[in-house]
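Exercise 7 asks you to align residues with tokens for two separate proteins.
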Amino acid sequence: MQTKKKVLIIDDDQDLLEIYGFKFESEGFSVEKAENGAWGLKRIQGEHFDIVLLDVSMPAMNGLEMLKSIEQIKKEKGFPKVLVLSNTALDSEVKEMEKAGADECFIKVKITPTEIYKKAMKLLGETK
């Protein structure tokens, strides 16, 4: 039996949590959700996730703060891969996120859940 891949979706927008969650569940992923970076960080510290979808602008701990906090986990364990979803397209923000450990950065309104799923699979070295 093949183990399901696990995704953690961290976003303070309930609608996006549901939309992204539905897409990944329909593709066979085990989906967990967190409404802010602080909750997401606790989940990552306690569980293995193959991929994280991370919003930039959130209460309690923003995406950049969270990336910096999980940097050591990524170095030691090689997981999770992180796709950052932003509302803006500032080059300086993207560079800062990549420097902090983001594997890829996207603007939410310019990418569909299906495209995000395909990018995630590519990062995981799988194609579908």
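Second protein for Exercise 7:
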Amino acid sequence: MVRSGAKSPEMLMKRSTMEFERSRRKNALRRDATIGSAEREIARVFRIPGRCVRLVNKSGRKARSDKLVGALLRDWGW
């Protein structure tokens, strides 16, 4: 019999998982970061395979991995 105030292990695990998800950084990338590191960071934060993330130039072509995020934003008019 479980008291009404007691929390089950499943509830505690769910809560800690939600707190973990909330604490992940999902804001802005640094402008001096490279495109390659930005793509890896996006894949890590959203837990998707790295090959699924692609940052593109305004022309639609994939941006070089050594290009800076600031240069990409400038190309897009930001």
